[in-house]
Every structure is written in structure tokens, then in C-alpha cells.
Amino acid sequence: MHQTFDAALGIDLLHVNQAGADHNRAHFDAWGITCMNIMSSPGAGKTALLERTLEGLHQKLAIAVIEGDMTTELDADRLRQYGVPVVAINTGRSCHLDAKMVAGGIHTLEHQYDPNALDLVLVENVGNLVCPAEFEVGEHAKIALLSITEGEDKPLKYPIMFQEADCLLITKVDLAPYLDVNIEQIAANVRQMNPHCTIISVSAKTGEGLEEWFGWVRSRVQASTSTKSHTHA
């Protein structure tokens, strides 16, 4: 079938990006780092989740953050208060991070810190329900957030992110008593497309579900470390 120029260009861009993502992942693997790409629409609670995650795990894991925003370092400054390395990337008009942008963040980590001392890099992607899921950045796991304020239909209307997610965090569940929303239906809509996705309901405000989330993160880091140790044995 003949492709339009735009379609061919899109495929080429994704191919180039994938090569860059594979290169980034090779760096993470060489340093023994697990990388997680955290994605959601604007306002779903990514930064609040990261604040609670750094608070809960920084004494158990050596963590760094690559923080993506179109403009400002407001979110990066919030996370720097937890005393972990934070590299801010401003994407300008781009609605997502790509492998090349994250490569710049990796080089900053390499020059300013000791990446061999890190266990985990958390990438906070730009708030967008579509584009971030299409551009890998070198991650070992994709984390999608969906706030209950966004409604039950978003996984069906914006499927790519939820199809790609290794873990879905349904956020702001403390607001459930005030909303006409069915959390079980959100989970069912995700499982319809991605039956293997881990789904955890959380509240950064009350702490509900956070220990389960922390456990999932630790298990992925441990599994990744074991795999790398076995590979290099």
C-alpha cells in the first residue's frame, strides 16, 4: 500500500526515536539503573505522586528524576526539596519527551552525579494522554496515571497509553465520595485492552495505596537488578 509522505515521515521519526531509546536503555543497563516513564494528562497528579514516592523510597533506593515540562522548572523545584538529583528538561512547544531529550538528561546526570550509585531514574513526562506513549525514552517500565476526575471513558478514548502501561495508578481516589464515578469500571476498561497491567488505586493526599505502589516499584528494581546480575555472571 502506498503511504502518504506524512505517514512515512511519522514512521521514520519513530524508528529514529526507537534507536535513541535503545541507546539510552543501554546506558541505564550499564549503570545498573531501572528507568520508569511516568505519563498522564495534565493535572492527574504525577508530581504529587513523585513527591510521595521520593518521601517513601529515597532511604531504600537511590533515586534521580528527569523532569519534563514544556516551560518552567516549577515541578522540578518541588522535587529538589527531597534532596535527590533532579534534571529539568523544557520541551518548548513539544507535547512529550523523546529519546534525544532524555539523552541530554542522562548526560547531565553522568557529568553532575555518579550514575553507578543510582538504583532508579523516574522520568516525569509532559502532561499529555497521547504522544508520550508513542515515544520511548529508554525506560524499562511505563507507568500511566488516570485521575478519577477524568472519568471512566478515557482509557477507551485514548487507548495507546493504557495499552502500553505496565502499571496504571488510578489517582485522587480520596475524591470518590464527591464524584459520580465508578473506579471498578475504569479498571475494567483498562483490562479490556491490557489484561496484564497492574492497577493500583492511590491517593497522594491520604496515602491510600501508596505502600502497594512502593512495593511494585521495589519489586521491579529488584527483578531488573537480578536479571542484569545473571546476564553479567
Automatic annotation (TrEMBL):
CDD domains: HypB (cd05390). Keywords: GTP-binding, Hydrolase, Metal-binding, Nickel, Nucleotide-binding, Zinc. Residues 37-200 form the CobW/HypB/UreG nucleotide-binding domain. It comes from the Bacteria. Coiled coil: none annotated. PANTHER family: HYDROGENASE MATURATION FACTOR HYPB, HYDROGENASE PROTEIN ASSEMBLY PROTEIN, NICKEL CHAPERONE. Belongs to the SIMIBI class G3E GTPase family. HypB/HupM subfamily. This is Hydrogenase nickel incorporation protein HypB. The gene is hypB.
